Amino acid sequence: MFKIDEKGNITDIRARAPHIKLEEEAIRVMKLLPKMIPGKQKGKTVAVLYSLPIAFNVEGDSLKNADRNNILLNSRNTKKPPLFIFDGKEISKEEMKKIDAKLIKKVNVLKGETAVEKYGKKGENGVIEIVKKH
User: Fold this and answer.
1) What's the mean pLDDT when you consider all of the chain?
2) CA-CA distance, 18 to 30, in Å (whole number)?
3) At what angle do helices 65-76 and 20-30 cross, to 10 degrees?
4) β-bridge mates for residue 3, sequence order
5) Domain ranges for the chain
6) Residue 2: which of 19, 14, 20, 16 has the closest Cα?
7) Residue 97: in which H helix or E strand, if any?
8) How confident is the model at residue 80, as a pLDDT?
9) CA distance 99 to 119
């Protein structure tokens, strides 16, 4: 969850997940969201609480829990940006920032082996899949 303040900034980011590393990753991804159009009530801009579901896909029976945690931890510290996919199409971070939040149905975050298996070498720094409402 997060708040879109009166100026369209993302504030008060909160996450709930079964593991602290997943919460941290969800918060990191939400901080990448673009500035939004603030809500209005009776003609005045107002802050709006927003909930955005993020589905983590952690797979691989051959990985031990410690290995999975290391993949999450180490991939967070990379300087290279993740791959952004909007409705099945690769986009730049700048294009991602221009997406109207009203068009977003959900955001999937792929990390480690799962990202590389699905997107090849381009996915090695993680993948943020943004699914559009239809």
Assistant:
1) 82
2) 18
3) 30
4) 11, 49
5) 2-132
6) 14
7) helix 93-97
8) 79
9) 22
- Could you tell me if residue 57 is left (phi over 0), alpha (psi between -120 and 50 degrees) or otherwise beta? beta
Phi (first) and psi of residue 129, to 5 degrees: -95, 120
Q: Which helix (H) or strand (E) holds 74?
A: helix 65-76
Residues in the chain: 134
Q: What is the pLDDT of residue 78?
A: 47
pTM for the model: 0.49
Position 75 scores a pLDDT of 46
State the CB neighbour count (10 A cutoff) for residue 41.
Answer: 8
Instruction: Read off the pLDDT band of 29 (50, 70, 90).
Output: confident
Spatial distance between the Cα atoms of 85 and 91, rounded to a whole number of angstroms: 6
| pLDDT tens, position by position, 66-119 | 444 454 455 444 467 899 999 999 999 888 888 887 888 888 888 888 889 999
